[in-house]
Amino acid sequence: MDKIYCMSHYLAFRYIADESKNFFPQLSHRNFTPNFTHDLIASVDELDSYIARQMQGLDPSTTGIMLSGGIDSAVVASYLPKGAKAFTMRCIASPTSIDETKQAALYAKSYGLEHIIVPIRWEDVLARLDSIFSFDGVPCHSIEPLIDICLSAAKSMGVRTMCLGESFDLVFGGMDKLLAKDWGFDEFVERYTFLDPKRVLKEYVDTKEVFEPYRQGEKIDFLRFIDEIFAIESSTSYWRMFEKNSMRYLDPCQKVKMAQPFDLQKIRNGSPKYMVRELFARRYKDIAIPDKIPMPREVEFWLRDYVPSRDEFVDGAHIGLSGDQKWQLFCLEQFLDMHDPRF
After folding, report:
1. Over the stretch 154-196, which tens digit does the pLDDT of each residue have?
2. Cα–Cα distances in Å, from 90 out to 68, 94, 251?
3. C-beta of residue 167 within 8 angstroms of C-beta of residue 47
4. Hey, which residues does 184 pair with through a beta bridge?
5. How confident is the model over 10-35, as pLDDT tens digits?
6. How buried is 163 (Cβ within 10 angstroms: 0-12 exposed, 13-18 middle, 19+ buried)?
7. Would you call 119 helix, strand, or coil by DSSP?
8. What is the spatial distance between Cα 54 and Cα 160, in angstroms, rounded to a whole number?
9. Distance (Å, whole) CA 175 – CA 234
10. Sign of the C-alpha dihedral, residues 39, 224, 270, 146?
């Protein structure tokens, strides 16, 4: 048990890398750990053929896809059999909430998919937290309740295999902000640390140790860090919710690696995921490539009045935080209340 360590690492990285460290004695947690060899892809033609092979033989009556308005899931959707179900999440929050349903509907119509909109309400998110905490053994990423709601809805409709393009950002150079420059060590630590624990906790541990194995003098091997640290954080949230819902996970490019290093100049000049963008243009000749937006999570609106109150937090810990950072505090507080009630 090491509550201080776990709080610090959850806030900094949105997951706890050391599986031997837990918040409380009765808890345990696991992370997604890739244990496969990579399939190398050298061209768009190879990528096209590869995805087609991975998607062969799917039964439309039991197959679905988590379809956003972006290009990754759209590309995957284009290989599904007609009649498969396409699920798009729609957060019900402020009047200016992100709405990807219209864009996703264009993709679904292009390939004869049944388009289903899954509404996400704050009360639904709250209702999921206890079961997610119990399953994960740790506080969760803000996308986990959304995934849980979506998978639960899909399962009730007979879906047993859910497709997605979760790996595409990592595999094909979609993390354009993290790839934007050759980072100095200290500036990358500041850029990547999601919420610095010393900013909000009375007691904390220094989380810089996670970055040290990637130090190269005053620089950092940010590409290896992304491959090894970000990859686990990114995939773990999905993996846990798929296991929780006993749903088969099908990401056709999960085992892919580009045969050549990223063309960083191309990415930095405004063409991230250049190989996927070209494939999208082939598969959707009449649809323009949309701007990239993250999975819609209306935490900025939902947590606009949130003020943390547990003794572990410094006074005013919420002040100046983004909505996603507030989620980290809120979720940690809810998790601690579940296992260490104040009243």
Report:
1. 999 999 999 999 999 999 999 999 999 999 999 999 999 999 9
2. 10, 12, 22
3. no
4. 219
5. 999 999 989 999 999 999 999 988 77
6. buried
7. strand
8. 16
9. 12
10. positive
CATH superfamily of 3-339: HUPs (3.40.50.620)
Q: Where are the domains of the chain?
A: 3-339
The CA-based angle 337-341-343, given to 5 degrees, is 125
Residues 273, 173: contact at Cβ < 8 Å? yes
d(CA 208, CA 205): 9
Q: Which amino acid is at 342?
A: R
Name beta bridge partners: 118. 89
193 sits in which H/E element: none
**CA 317 to chain CA centroid, nearest Å:** 25
Provide the token pair at 23: 């918040």
Q: What residue spans of 34-143 are helical by DSSP H?
A: 44-54, 71-77, 101-110, 122-136
Q: Which of 207, 144, 208, 210 is nearest to 4 (CA)?
A: 207
pLDDT for 117: 98
Over residues 5-12, mean pLDDT? 97
Q: What are phi and psi of 71, to 5 degrees?
A: -85, -25
φ, ψ for residue 280, nearest 5 deg:
-60, -45
Distance CA(50)–CA(47), nearest Å, equals 5
CA end-to-end distance (rounded Å), the chain:
22
* 111's tokens: 């390939």
pLDDT band at 295 (very low <50, low <70, confident <90, very high): low
